[in-house]
Write a structure and sequence with these properties.
Elements lengths: L2 E2 L1 E2 L5 E2 L5 E3 L1 H11 L7 E2 L25 H5 L23 H7 L6 E3 L17 H7 L5 H14 L1 H11 L9 H10 L1 H11 L5 H11 L8 H4 L7 H14 L19 H14 L4 H8 L6 H12 L6 H15 L11 E6 L4 H7 L3 E6 L1 H14 L11 E8 L2 E5 L3 H9 L2 H19 L1 E7 L6 E7 L2 E7 L39 H14 L8 H8 L12 E2 L2 E5 L1 H6 L9
Parallel strand pairs: 1-5
Antiparallel strand pairs: 2-3, 4-6, 7-10, 7-11, 8-15, 9-10, 9-14, 9-15, 11-12, 12-13
Helix pairs in contact: 1-5, 3-4, 4-5, 5-7, 6-7, 6-8, 7-9, 8-9, 11-12, 12-14, 13-14, 18-19
C-alpha cells in the first residue's frame, strides 16, 4: 500500500478533492503507522519515513589528524567539534508538556489528504499540536521520533520557531540532531532564522548546532547559499561553499561566486572553495582557466583548484609546462624525507629504472620530486576513486634508487581488480605471484603493506622465483614460512604479548601519556618484545620509507608512470605537493 501526499508552498499540503483539514498530530499518527514494517512507504521528498534513521553521530569528540583529508573534505565545517554533554540523554523520555506549552501557545492546522480507514492505523492519534510533537522527539521509540519529525516538517513555517527553540536549548532532553534535521527538511522558511542563530550571542555549542543545520537546508534555489558566500562571518562562507560542493553540477551557475574565496582571509575557507570546485565537477574548468589567464589575485589558487578538479589533464598546455619547470627547479636540491605510509609498495634490488617500468607495464613516465611521488601515492590510495573508478590503479610512483633499492608505490591493476572481484584472498594471491615473478627477474622482490587507520600490516618476501615468507596480520593462519631472520627479536602483531591480567588497572585509558608509560613499564618488567610491522621488516631487509633522511643515498630521480588503467581512463584528480 502506497500513499502519496503532495507538497505545496509554505508548509501547506495540497490534497485531492475531498481533503480534510487536520492538526499536525494526525499526520504523526499516520506517519507512525506508515513507518512500520508492514505498512509500505510514503512517496515524496518530505515524507521520507522509511528512508533511514536520522543522523545520530557518535557521542564525544570527533578527532581529526593530518591524514584525515577525505573526512574533512566531505564533512561540514562544524563536524569536528565536541558534541553536547546533553546528547546522551536523548534516549530517555521526559515530560515537556508544561514547559513547551509555556513557550508555544498555539499551532496552526494544515491540510492533508486522508487515506481510507485511517482510524484503523495502529498508533494513530488526533488532537496533538506542535508542542506535543516536539515532546515526541524525545521518545525512546525510533518510529515515534520519525513520525513526529515528519509531522513537524509538514507543518512548515509554523514549526520553525518552536523547533529552533528546542535546537538552541542545551538542557533539552531532545537530541539536537532531530530538530536540526527537521529544520533542514522544512527548507526555505528555516533559512533566515537559522542564519540569525549563527550570528547570535548564544553559546558556541548553540552556534555549532545552527551551523550544522545551516549546512543542509533543503532550499528551493541554491542562489540563497551563493548570496552568503561574501558574508562577513567566515563560518557562513565556509558552510555555504560546502553546500555548493555537495550540490555537484547543479551548483555550476553559482561557481563564479566561489572564485573570491580562493584568496579568503580564512585558510579553511580557501580550502573549502577548492573542494567546492571539485565537487561541482569538470564544468568549472573553463572558468578556472580564464582566471589563470587573467590578472585576478586568485590566479595561483586557481591552479590548485584545477588540479583538484581534474588532475594533470585539467591543466592547459601553458600550465603543464609551468609545473614541469617548477619540478625541475625543486629536483636540484631535494633531500630524502620520511614518507607517510598507508598502502602497499614493492622493493626491488636494482638500479635499472627502465627494467622496473617494463616489469610493471608502465609508460608515459614523468620525472617528479620524491615529495610529489609520495603525495600522488597517498592521494590515490585515500581518495583515488573520487570521480574516477580506476583512480587507485591508474598510476604508480617509482622512486629513485634509495640505498641500492628501487621502490614501487601504488596498486597495480591486477592487484586492485583482484581485491574487488571477490575477497582479499584474491589480492594476497596476486601479490604472491607478482613477488615470485619479479624475484625471478631481479633476484629478490619484497612487498610491504601498512595502514594508517586500522593497524593492518603485511609483508611478502621472494627470492629467485620462490616465496620464502608471507604474513598478514588480518590472516595470520595464511602465513608462508616459519618466520624470518628479519623478525627476530620482535613478536608478530597478532600474537599475545603475555601482558599480565590487570596491567592497566588504575590507569585512565583516555590518558594516552599515562597509558603509554604503563605499557612501556610492563614491557620492561616482563621482557615483552616489541611488535613488528612492515616498515620494521623493510628497514632490516631493504629500505624503510618512513625513515628516509639526508643519510639515505639517492641515485637518479623518481617518476610517475601510467598503468594500463591510466592509459585507458586517464589520471586521477587531486592537487599534489611538489
Amino acid at each position: 500500500m502506497v500513499h502519496t501526499i503532495g507538497a505545496g508552498k509554505g508548509g501547506t499540503r495540497r490534497a485531492d478533492p475531498g481533503r480534510t483539514d487536520r492538526p499536525p498530530a494526525e499526520i504523526a499518527g499516520l506517519a507512525t503507522y506508515l513507518a512500520t514494517d508492514t505498512a509500505g512507504f510514503i512517496t515524496g521528498a518530505t515524507y521520507d519515513i522509511n528512508g533511514g534513521v536520522l543522523m545520530r553521530p557518535p557521542q564525544g569528540e570527533t578527532r581529526t589528524t593530518k591524514h584525515s583529508h577525505l573526512a574533512e573534505r566531505h564533512s561540514p565545517p562544524t563536524a569536528h567539534h565536541q558534541t553536547s554533554t546533553t546528547d546522551s540523554r536523548h534516549y530517555r523520555m521526559f515530560s515537556l508538556r508544561r514547559d513547551l506549552r509555556r513557550l508555544f501557545r498555539t499551532s496552526a492546522p494544515f491540510s492533508v489528504s486522508r487515506p481510507p480507514d485511517l482510524a484503523c492505523c495502529p498508533g494513530y492519534r488526533v488532537g496533538v499540536g506542535i508542542p506535543e510533537l516536539i515532546e515526541q522527539l524525545a521518545a525512546p521509540e525510533m518510529e515515534a521520533r520519525q513520525a513526529a519529525g515528519a509531522a513537524l516538517v509538514a507543518a512548515g513555517a509554523a514549526a520553525v520557531g518552536p523547533v529552533l527553540a528546542v535546537l538552541c536549548n542545551e538542557a533539552s532532553p531532545v537530541y539536537w540532531g532531530d530538530p536540526a534535521n527537521v529544520l533542514r527538511r522544512i527548507g526555505d522558511p528555516a533559512f533566515d532564522p537559522v542564519l540569525d542563530v549563527i550570528l547570535s550571542t548564544g553559546t558556541e555549542e548553540v552556534r555549532r548546532r545552527a551551523r550544522w543545520t545551516f549546512g543542509g537546508i533543503e532550499v528551493s534555489d541554491l542562489t540563497r547559499y551563493a548570496e552568503v558566500l561574501a558574508h562577513p562571518d567566515s563560518s557562513i562562507r565556509d558552510t555555504a561553499a560546502f553546500v555548493l560542493q555537495n550540490a555537484g553540477s547543479a551548483a555550476l551557475p553559482m561557481a563564479p561566486a566561489l572564485v573570491p574565496l580562493l584568496t579568503d582571509a580564512d585558510e579553511d575557507v580557501c580550502q573549502r572553495a577548492v573542494w567546492a570546485f571539485a565537487g561541482i565537477g569538470p564544468g568549472v574548468i573553463p572558468l578556472l582557466r580564464r582566471v589563470r589567464r587573467s590578472t585576478a589575485p586568485q590566479r595561483r589558487q586557481a591552479l590548485t583548484a584545477l588540479a583538484e578538479v581534474g588532475g594533470w589533464d585539467a591543466l592547459d598546455a601553458a600550465d603543464q609546462r609551468l609545473v614541469e619547470r617548477l619540478i625541475a627547479v625543486k629536483l636540484r636540491d631535494e633531500k630524502p624525507a620520511s614518507m607517510h605510509l598507508c598502502g602497499g609498495w614493492y622493493a626491488l634490488p636494482t638500479k635499472d629504472q627502465g627494467a622496473v617500468l617494463e616489469a610493471f607495464g608502465l609508460s608515459d613516465a614523468m620525472t617528479v620530486t620524491m615529495r610529489l611521488g609520495e603525495s600522488a601515492w597517498n592521494s590515490d590510495h585515500h581518495g583515488g576513486t573520487l570521480g574516477h573508478e580506476h583512480g587507485r590503479c591508474s598510476r604508480t610512483y617509482v622512486s629513485p634508487v634509495l640505498d641500492g633499492w628501487t621502490l614501487v608505490f601504488g596498486d597495480p591493476p591486477g592487484s586492485a581488480h583482484s581485491a574487488s572481484a571477490e575477497t582479499e584472498s584474491g589480492r594476497r594471491q596476486y601479490i604472491r605471484r607478482r613477488c615470485a615473478e619479479l624475484s625471478g627477474v631481479f633476484g629478490a622482490a619484497h612487498w610491504y603493506g601498512e595502514s594508517c587507520g586500522d593497524g593492518w600490516t603485511a609483508w611478502c618476501l621472494a627470492e629467485h622465483g620462490r616465496i620464502i615468507r608471507c604474513y598478514d596480520v588480518f590472516e595470520p593462519e595464511d602465513q608462508v614460512g616459519n618466520g624470518h631472520a628479519a623478525e627476530d627479536g620482535y613478536r608478530l602483531p597478532h600474537e599475545d604479548g603475555g601482558f599480565p591480567e590487570g596491567w592497566i588497572d588504575g590507569i585512565d585509558v583516555s590518558d594516552t601519556a599515562a597509558l603509554q608509560e604503563r605499557y612501556e613499564q610492563v614491557k620492561r618488567d616482563f621482557a615483552i618484545p616489541d611488535v613488528c610491522h612492515a616498515a620494521d621488516i623493510a628497514g632490516r631487509l631493504s629500505v624503510d620509507p618512513s625513515e628516509l633522511d639526508e643519510r639515505t643515498s639517492v641515485l637518479g630521480h623518481g617518476v610517475l608512470a601510467l598503468t594500463a588503467c591510466g592509459r585507458r581512463y586517464g589520471t586521477p584528480r587531486g592537487a599534489l605537493h611538489i
